[in-house]
DNA sequence: TTATAGATTGCCT
DNA sequence: GGCAATCTATAAT
């Protein structure tokens, strides 16, 4: 148990991640993603996620089997799978299911709770033209989220998100979302019809589509 | 060995 | 709405 800014934070047990990605996705809504850097803390509440299944999901990176890029997915649950996309952006996933099975959850949106200014600085440093950006969009979208939290493949791929000592971890502060919405996943071309995107209904930090 | 698409974002018209 | 940015995996040559 850890206290931070008056909140009691519990890390999530390995068993939380060792389940069907759909279940993990739904239950990750409302949890916190926390980055500890020395004395500094960056934290946000998860408001948007997508499930990618270990088998029978042609949209998943795991569909083609193990590669150098996706091998974390086939390892133990609760670890960060960070990949680089479109030559520009990082995306953060959490591995699910027991070792050998490759399901995961893509974290697509955070509501900033701590370190907002550091997040804004991180994004400004990357592109100085972003003055006047909306604070509620600091970590809305998988690429922005990684930039705001300073998540990269070299730094974070394979990191244990169940361990608070790892510096990047997931926590429960007791918050429970009131209403959860299911929609199709964003930006994919295969298995388009499946309702595997989960959002906290009405939250302003959910990306515009199907908010 | 080369070509193309991709779990995105932001700037352009 | 179009499209550029330009890494990675995989398909095509």
Description:
By secondary structure, this protein is an alpha+beta fold. It is 17% helix and 30% strand. The protein is built from five helices and ten strands, in the order E-E-H-H-E-E-E-E-E-H-H-H-E-E-E. The chain has helices spanning 14-17, 21-28, 116-126, 142-149, 153-156, and strands at residues 2-4, 7-11, 32-37, 40-52, 80-85, 89-95, 104-114, 168-172, 180-183, 197-200. The protein is globular, with a radius of gyration of 16 Å. The mean pLDDT is 92. The structure holds a DNA duplex (13 and 13 nucleotides).
**Number of DSSP helical runs:** 5
CATH architecture: Roll
What is the CATH topology classification name? 3-methyladenine DNA Glycosylase, Chain A
What would you call the shape? globular
User: What is the count of distinct domains?
Assistant: 1
Q: Helix and strand string, N-terminal first?
A: EEHHEEEEEHHHEEE
Rg for CA atoms: 16 Å
Total strands: the figure is 10
Structural class: alpha+beta
CATH superfamily: Methylpurine-DNA glycosylase (MPG)
The main β sheet shows up as: 10 strands, antiparallel
Termini separation: 33 Å
User: Which strand-content bin applies to the residues?
Assistant: 25-35%
């Amino acid at each position: 148990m850890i206290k931070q800014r008056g909140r009691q934070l519990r890390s999530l047990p390995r068993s939380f991640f060792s389940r069907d990605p759909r279940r993990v996705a739904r239950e990750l809504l409302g949890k916190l993603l926390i980055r500890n850097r020395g004395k500094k803390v960056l934290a946000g509440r998860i408001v948007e996620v997508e499930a990618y299944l270990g088998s029978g999901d042609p949209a998943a990176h795991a569909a083609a089997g193990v590669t150098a890029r996706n091998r974390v997915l086939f390892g133990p649950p609760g670890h960060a799978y960070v990949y680089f996309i479109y030559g520009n952006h990082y995306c953060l996933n959490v591995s699910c299911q027991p070792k050998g099975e490759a399901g995961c959850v893509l974290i697509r949106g955070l509501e900033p709770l701590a370190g907002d200014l550091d997040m804004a600085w991180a994004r400004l440093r990357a592109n100085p033209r972003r003055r006047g950006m909306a604070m509620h969009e600091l970590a809305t979208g998988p690429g922005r989220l990684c930039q705001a939290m300073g998540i990269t493949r070299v730094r974070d791929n394979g990191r244990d998100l169940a361990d608070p000592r790892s510096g990047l971890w997931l926590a429960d502060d007791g918050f429970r979302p009131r209403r959860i919405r299911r929609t199709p996943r964003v930006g994919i071309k295969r298995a388009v019809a499946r309702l595997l995107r989960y959002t906290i209904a009405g939250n302003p930090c959910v990306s515009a589509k199907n908010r």
